[in-house]
Amino acid sequence: MALMTTEQVAEFLGVKEERVRRLERESLLIAAEKDDAGNAKFNEDDVKRYKELAERIGGI
């Protein structure tokens, strides 16, 4: 299981980092863990599945 930072997820999805943080706050993209500083780390497979779903329903 590869973990992605907020910055990596934002780049992969083509959105700003704040958008990724909002998706996590709204439980639309669930963080696998948080580091010591409280920064979310996301499972790469979950991010890919989220992107597929978002594209099917009209975009991210």
Automatic annotation (TrEMBL):
Signal peptide: none
Helix-turn-helix domain segment(s): 3-52
InterPro entries associated with the record: DNA-bd_dom_put_sf (IPR009061), HTH_17 (IPR041657)
SUPFAM superfamilies: Putative DNA-binding domain (SSF46955)
Pfam families xrefs: HTH_17
Superkingdom field: Bacteria
Residue spans crossing the bilayer: none
Name this protein carries in UniProt: Helix-turn-helix domain-containing protein
Organism whose genome encodes this protein: Pseudoalteromonas piratica
